[in-house]
Amino acid sequence: MPNRNGRAAAQRNCCSTPCNNALSADISRIYDSCADRDCLEDLEVVFAAEDAALVETACSVKATGCEILTAYVDMDEITYNRGCYAIECTYYFVVDFNVYQAGTGTPDTMQGVCTFTKRSMLYGASGSVNTFTSTDTSELPSSVTEPVAKVQAMDPMVLGSDIVSNRIRDCVQIPEAVSEAMGEPLVQNTGERKIVVTLGLFSIMQLCRNVQVTLPAYEFAVPEKECNADNDSPCDVFRSFDFPLDQFFPQNGGNCNVCGCDTQMDYEGECPNAGAPDQNGRPGRR
User: With contact defined as beta carbons under 8 Å apart, do 112 and 95 qualify?
Assistant: First the structure.
Protein backbone atom coordinates (compact mmCIF):
# COMPACT_ATOMS: atom_id res chain seq x y z
CA MET A 1 0.00 0.00 0.00
CA PRO A 2 2.75 2.57 0.75
CA ASN A 3 4.24 1.92 -2.69
CA ARG A 4 0.90 2.53 -4.39
CA ASN A 5 0.41 5.77 -2.47
CA GLY A 6 3.91 6.89 -3.41
CA ARG A 7 3.31 6.14 -7.09
CA ALA A 8 -0.04 7.93 -6.97
CA ALA A 9 1.59 11.01 -5.46
CA ALA A 10 4.28 10.96 -8.17
CA GLN A 11 1.59 10.69 -10.86
CA ARG A 12 -0.29 13.68 -9.40
CA ASN A 13 2.92 15.71 -9.36
CA CYS A 14 3.62 14.76 -12.96
CA CYS A 15 0.14 15.87 -13.98
CA SER A 16 0.54 19.30 -12.39
CA THR A 17 4.09 19.90 -13.72
CA PRO A 18 5.79 19.11 -17.04
CA CYS A 19 6.98 15.58 -16.18
CA ASN A 20 8.12 13.42 -19.06
CA ASN A 21 8.85 10.06 -17.50
CA ALA A 22 10.11 8.25 -14.45
CA LEU A 23 13.88 8.17 -14.00
CA SER A 24 15.93 5.44 -12.34
CA ALA A 25 18.85 6.83 -10.38
CA ASP A 26 21.66 5.48 -8.26
CA ILE A 27 21.99 7.87 -5.34
CA SER A 28 23.72 8.00 -1.98
CA ARG A 29 21.04 7.68 0.69
CA ILE A 30 21.69 8.91 4.22
CA TYR A 31 20.68 6.08 6.55
CA ASP A 32 21.65 7.80 9.79
CA SER A 33 23.25 11.05 10.87
CA CYS A 34 24.00 13.10 13.96
CA ALA A 35 24.91 16.74 14.60
CA ASP A 36 26.94 17.83 17.56
CA ARG A 37 28.45 20.89 19.21
CA ASP A 38 31.65 19.98 21.04
CA CYS A 39 33.65 22.12 23.44
CA LEU A 40 37.23 20.85 23.21
CA GLU A 41 38.91 21.94 26.41
CA ASP A 42 42.65 22.27 26.99
CA LEU A 43 43.98 20.61 23.84
CA GLU A 44 47.77 20.47 23.96
CA VAL A 45 49.45 22.17 20.99
CA VAL A 46 52.68 20.95 19.41
CA PHE A 47 55.08 23.22 17.52
CA ALA A 48 58.25 23.09 15.49
CA ALA A 49 61.43 22.78 17.56
CA GLU A 50 62.32 26.46 17.19
CA ASP A 51 58.87 27.66 18.22
CA ALA A 52 58.66 25.18 21.09
CA ALA A 53 61.70 26.88 22.69
CA LEU A 54 59.79 30.19 22.81
CA VAL A 55 57.07 28.62 24.95
CA GLU A 56 59.50 28.12 27.84
CA THR A 57 60.24 31.87 28.08
CA ALA A 58 56.80 33.27 27.12
CA CYS A 59 54.80 35.26 29.66
CA SER A 60 51.43 35.13 27.85
CA VAL A 61 49.85 33.74 24.71
CA LYS A 62 46.78 34.51 22.60
CA ALA A 63 45.22 32.27 19.98
CA THR A 64 44.14 34.38 16.99
CA GLY A 65 42.62 31.79 14.67
CA CYS A 66 42.08 28.12 13.93
CA GLU A 67 41.25 25.98 10.91
CA ILE A 68 40.93 22.29 10.14
CA LEU A 69 44.01 21.00 8.34
CA THR A 70 42.66 17.50 7.69
CA ALA A 71 40.69 14.68 9.27
CA TYR A 72 40.96 10.89 9.19
CA VAL A 73 37.70 8.92 9.29
CA ASP A 74 37.63 5.24 10.28
CA MET A 75 34.62 2.94 10.46
CA ASP A 76 34.16 -0.51 11.98
CA GLU A 77 31.05 -2.67 12.09
CA ILE A 78 29.71 -3.49 15.54
CA THR A 79 29.46 -7.26 15.71
CA TYR A 80 26.87 -7.47 18.50
CA ASN A 81 24.51 -4.97 16.85
CA ARG A 82 23.95 -5.84 13.20
CA GLY A 83 23.72 -2.86 10.89
CA CYS A 84 25.40 -0.43 13.32
CA TYR A 85 28.87 1.00 12.81
CA ALA A 86 31.34 2.77 15.05
CA ILE A 87 32.76 5.91 13.43
CA GLU A 88 35.98 7.51 14.62
CA CYS A 89 37.07 10.86 13.22
CA THR A 90 40.44 12.36 14.15
CA TYR A 91 40.79 16.08 13.45
CA TYR A 92 44.03 17.98 13.06
CA PHE A 93 43.71 21.71 13.74
CA VAL A 94 46.17 24.45 12.82
CA VAL A 95 46.11 27.22 15.44
CA ASP A 96 47.68 30.67 15.05
CA PHE A 97 49.23 32.25 18.13
CA ASN A 98 50.66 35.54 19.29
CA VAL A 99 53.29 34.76 21.94
CA TYR A 100 54.44 37.60 24.18
CA GLN A 101 57.86 37.64 25.83
CA ALA A 102 58.70 39.60 28.96
CA GLY A 103 59.85 43.14 28.22
CA THR A 104 58.73 43.18 24.58
CA GLY A 105 55.61 44.73 23.13
CA THR A 106 55.69 42.99 19.75
CA PRO A 107 54.48 39.38 19.90
CA ASP A 108 56.04 36.43 18.10
CA THR A 109 53.61 34.82 15.65
CA MET A 110 53.71 31.05 15.24
CA GLN A 111 51.53 28.13 14.28
CA GLY A 112 50.91 24.87 16.08
CA VAL A 113 48.86 21.72 15.65
CA CYS A 114 46.45 20.08 18.04
CA THR A 115 44.31 17.00 17.55
CA PHE A 116 40.96 15.67 18.70
CA THR A 117 39.21 12.33 18.14
CA LYS A 118 35.42 12.11 18.05
CA ARG A 119 33.55 8.82 18.20
CA SER A 120 29.96 8.00 17.36
CA MET A 121 27.73 5.00 16.57
CA LEU A 122 25.33 5.20 13.63
CA TYR A 123 23.05 2.84 11.75
CA GLY A 124 24.09 2.05 8.19
CA ALA A 125 21.98 -1.03 7.41
CA SER A 126 23.46 -4.37 6.41
CA GLY A 127 23.98 -5.67 2.89
CA SER A 128 25.74 -8.68 1.45
CA VAL A 129 25.79 -7.70 -2.23
CA ASN A 130 29.22 -7.44 -3.84
CA THR A 131 29.58 -4.30 -5.95
CA PHE A 132 32.36 -3.81 -8.51
CA THR A 133 32.97 -0.68 -10.56
CA SER A 134 34.94 0.12 -13.70
CA THR A 135 36.72 2.93 -11.88
CA ASP A 136 38.65 0.43 -9.77
CA THR A 137 41.77 -0.20 -11.89
CA SER A 138 43.68 -2.31 -9.36
CA GLU A 139 44.86 -5.79 -10.33
CA LEU A 140 42.51 -7.38 -7.82
CA PRO A 141 39.35 -5.22 -7.58
CA SER A 142 37.61 -5.35 -4.24
CA SER A 143 33.86 -5.33 -3.72
CA VAL A 144 32.05 -2.58 -1.87
CA THR A 145 29.53 -3.80 0.71
CA GLU A 146 29.85 -1.33 3.57
CA PRO A 147 28.29 2.12 3.84
CA VAL A 148 30.37 5.27 3.53
CA ALA A 149 30.99 7.47 6.56
CA LYS A 150 31.01 11.22 5.91
CA VAL A 151 31.97 14.01 8.29
CA GLN A 152 31.22 17.71 7.80
CA ALA A 153 32.73 20.26 10.16
CA MET A 154 33.17 24.00 10.38
CA ASP A 155 36.49 25.60 11.25
CA PRO A 156 36.54 25.74 15.06
CA MET A 157 35.94 28.84 17.14
CA VAL A 158 38.78 29.78 19.47
CA LEU A 159 37.34 29.99 22.98
CA GLY A 160 40.54 30.42 24.96
CA SER A 161 44.26 29.69 25.25
CA ASP A 162 46.76 29.54 28.09
CA ILE A 163 50.25 28.49 29.17
CA VAL A 164 50.22 25.72 31.77
CA SER A 165 53.01 24.23 33.86
CA ASN A 166 53.51 20.85 35.52
CA ARG A 167 50.81 19.28 33.38
CA ILE A 168 50.75 15.58 32.60
CA ARG A 169 51.88 15.38 29.02
CA ASP A 170 49.31 14.15 26.51
CA CYS A 171 50.33 11.61 23.92
CA VAL A 172 50.02 13.66 20.73
CA GLN A 173 50.82 11.67 17.60
CA ILE A 174 51.28 13.72 14.45
CA PRO A 175 51.30 11.86 11.10
CA GLU A 176 54.16 12.55 8.74
CA ALA A 177 51.79 14.01 6.15
CA VAL A 178 50.63 16.63 8.65
CA SER A 179 54.22 17.61 9.46
CA GLU A 180 54.98 17.93 5.76
CA ALA A 181 51.94 20.17 5.29
CA MET A 182 53.26 22.44 8.05
CA GLY A 183 56.62 22.69 6.31
CA GLU A 184 58.79 21.37 9.16
CA PRO A 185 58.75 18.52 11.68
CA LEU A 186 56.55 18.99 14.72
CA VAL A 187 57.84 17.91 18.12
CA GLN A 188 56.03 17.63 21.41
CA ASN A 189 57.43 20.00 24.00
CA THR A 190 59.37 18.09 26.65
CA GLY A 191 59.72 21.07 28.97
CA GLU A 192 57.57 22.02 31.93
CA ARG A 193 55.46 24.61 30.09
CA LYS A 194 52.90 23.86 27.43
CA ILE A 195 50.32 25.82 25.47
CA VAL A 196 46.73 24.58 25.60
CA VAL A 197 43.75 25.84 23.62
CA THR A 198 39.98 25.49 23.99
CA LEU A 199 37.97 25.21 20.77
CA GLY A 200 34.29 25.07 19.84
CA LEU A 201 33.46 22.65 17.02
CA PHE A 202 30.23 22.14 15.02
CA SER A 203 30.09 18.88 13.08
CA ILE A 204 27.76 16.44 11.32
CA MET A 205 28.39 12.71 10.87
CA GLN A 206 26.55 10.65 8.26
CA LEU A 207 26.36 7.04 7.14
CA CYS A 208 25.43 6.73 3.46
CA ARG A 209 24.82 3.79 1.17
CA ASN A 210 24.19 3.73 -2.58
CA VAL A 211 20.63 2.70 -3.46
CA GLN A 212 18.55 2.61 -6.64
CA VAL A 213 15.39 4.73 -6.64
CA THR A 214 12.79 5.93 -9.14
CA LEU A 215 12.28 9.67 -9.44
CA PRO A 216 9.95 11.83 -11.55
CA ALA A 217 11.90 13.19 -14.53
CA TYR A 218 11.28 16.77 -15.64
CA GLU A 219 12.70 18.81 -18.50
CA PHE A 220 16.44 19.09 -18.98
CA ALA A 221 18.02 21.82 -16.87
CA VAL A 222 19.12 24.18 -19.63
CA PRO A 223 20.97 27.21 -18.23
CA GLU A 224 19.12 30.45 -18.78
CA LYS A 225 21.86 32.81 -17.63
CA GLU A 226 24.35 34.02 -20.22
CA CYS A 227 28.06 33.81 -19.48
CA ASN A 228 28.77 37.45 -20.29
CA ALA A 229 31.80 39.19 -18.89
CA ASP A 230 30.92 42.28 -16.89
CA ASN A 231 32.71 45.09 -18.71
CA ASP A 232 30.67 47.91 -17.22
CA SER A 233 32.39 50.68 -15.35
CA PRO A 234 32.28 50.61 -11.53
CA CYS A 235 29.90 53.57 -11.54
CA ASP A 236 27.48 51.79 -13.90
CA VAL A 237 27.53 48.72 -11.67
CA PHE A 238 26.89 50.88 -8.61
CA ARG A 239 23.94 52.60 -10.27
CA SER A 240 22.33 49.22 -10.94
CA PHE A 241 22.07 48.53 -7.19
CA ASP A 242 18.74 49.08 -5.45
CA PHE A 243 18.62 51.86 -2.89
CA PRO A 244 18.98 50.25 0.59
CA LEU A 245 15.71 51.49 2.07
CA ASP A 246 15.82 48.94 4.89
CA GLN A 247 19.04 50.46 6.16
CA PHE A 248 17.56 53.96 6.36
CA PHE A 249 14.04 52.92 7.39
CA PRO A 250 14.22 49.70 9.48
CA GLN A 251 11.13 47.51 9.41
CA ASN A 252 8.96 47.03 12.45
CA GLY A 253 10.55 44.15 14.39
CA GLY A 254 7.82 41.65 15.15
CA ASN A 255 5.04 42.44 17.64
CA CYS A 256 7.10 44.53 20.04
CA ASN A 257 5.10 47.67 19.35
CA VAL A 258 2.07 46.72 17.28
CA CYS A 259 -0.22 48.89 19.40
CA GLY A 260 1.54 52.12 18.50
CA CYS A 261 3.65 54.51 20.53
CA ASP A 262 3.19 54.49 24.31
CA THR A 263 0.30 52.03 24.12
CA GLN A 264 0.33 48.89 26.23
CA MET A 265 -1.40 45.63 25.36
CA ASP A 266 -4.11 44.32 27.64
CA TYR A 267 -3.91 41.01 29.49
CA GLU A 268 -5.42 39.11 26.54
CA GLY A 269 -2.70 40.28 24.15
CA GLU A 270 -4.94 42.74 22.27
CA CYS A 271 -4.44 46.42 21.59
CA PRO A 272 -7.13 48.40 23.42
CA ASN A 273 -7.15 51.23 20.85
CA ALA A 274 -6.50 49.15 17.72
CA GLY A 275 -9.03 49.15 14.92
CA ALA A 276 -8.97 47.55 11.49
CA PRO A 277 -5.49 47.35 9.92
CA ASP A 278 -4.60 49.89 7.26
CA GLN A 279 -3.30 49.12 3.76
CA ASN A 280 0.22 48.53 5.11
CA GLY A 281 -0.93 45.92 7.62
CA ARG A 282 -0.56 48.22 10.67
CA PRO A 283 -3.34 48.25 13.28
CA GLY A 284 -5.58 51.27 12.94
CA ARG A 285 -7.00 53.57 15.61
CA ARG A 286 -10.54 53.27 16.90
Answer: yes
Does 176 share its domain with 267? no
> Are the C-beta atoms of 156 and 199 separated by less than 8 Å?
yes
Q: Quick check: is 234 in a domain?
A: no
User: Closest Cα to residue 212, out of 129, 149, 135, 151?
Assistant: 129
Residues in the chain: 286
User: What is the C-alpha R_g of the chain?
Assistant: 29
Q: Tell me the per-residue pLDDT of 244-281, one tens digit each, with 9 for 90 and over.
A: 888 787 776 555 444 444 444 444 444 555 455 555 55
Per-residue pLDDT of 149-161, as tens digits, reads: 999 999 999 999 9
Q: Please list, in sequence order, all residues whose beta carbon lies within 8 angstroms of the beta carbon of residue 163, skipping any fewer than 6 positions away.
A: 55, 58, 60, 61, 193, 194, 195, 196
